[in-house]
Amino acid sequence: GQQLNQSPQSMFIQEGEDVSMNCTSSSIFNTWLWYKQDPGEGPVLLIALYKAGELTSNGRLTAQFGTTRKDSFLNISASIPSDVGIYFCAAPPAGSGNTGKLIFGQGTTLQVKP
Amino acid sequence: KAGVTQTPRYLIKTRGQQVTLSCSPISGHRSVSWYQQTPGQGLQFLFEYFSETQRNKGNFPGRFSGRQFSNSRSEMNVSTLELGDSALYLCASSLGSSGENIQYFGAGTRLSVL
């Protein structure tokens, strides 16, 4: 089936550093989504990407829809302690009959040292 | 606008019992999707409801069922609980229209089966 491979699995960085993570698949997707999940909470949508090559920013976050449509990247600039959490990439699988379904990557756990 | 509301937040049950979880979507959203989140399997799609009809279903046993009411509120039921059903159950709502893939998540219900 369609899978999203997210890396790295975890990151431990110093406050102020930039962060990069990515999500790859052997399948093509038409939409890429990035969510952040804090402990004990549900995922919160950060950025949505709809077109191959698209680069979208949300404050210090920037995400890109890969040109092959098989990958996406998320960058966080100048990290702060509240960036701590688990970041997930997600995408709706192609094909009819797949309404309402998102496939998720395994997540990248980010820890920031003040 | 209120977000997605899930009740209860925490639940403890014993093996063999059944449980019902509730989800109130964002006002105006007609689609509700349910996910199971565990450390080992990550976020996995259970099913999606739209206009009181199940439109899509994941690979879970028949013990997992759901329904949606005319006001778009949804409930999920798990019968004959097993230890492995311990998980965070998340619901997400979206407009549900064709091509609309943005899902907004609730805080989840943490189910512990003893």
Core attributes:
heterodimer, A: 114 residues, mainly beta, six-stranded mixed sheet, five-stranded antiparallel sheet, 0% helix, globular, B: 114 residues
Question: Secondary-structure map with pairings?
Answer:
The complex is a heterodimer of chains A (114) and B (114).
Chain A: E1 5-7, E2 10-14, E3 19-24, E4 32-37, E5 44-49, E6 55-58, E7 61-65, E8 71-76, E9 85-91, E10 103-104, E11 108-113
Chain B: E1 5-7, E2 10-13, E3 19-24, E4 31-38, E5 42-50, E6 53-57, E7 64-68, E8 74-78, E9 87-94, E10 104-105, E11 109-113
Parallel strand pairs in B: 2-11
Antiparallel strand pairs in B: 1-3, 3-8, 4-5, 4-9, 5-6, 7-8, 9-10, 9-11
How would you classify the quaternary structure? Answer: heterodimer
Q: What is the rounded Rg of chain B?
A: 13 Å
Mean pLDDT of chain A, to the nearest integer, reads 94
Shape of chain A: globular
Number of helices of chain A: 0
Task: Give the C-alpha Rg of chain A.
Answer: 14 Å
Helix content of chain A: under 10%
**First-last Cα distance of chain A:** 41 Å
> By helix and strand content of chain B, what is the structural category?
mainly beta
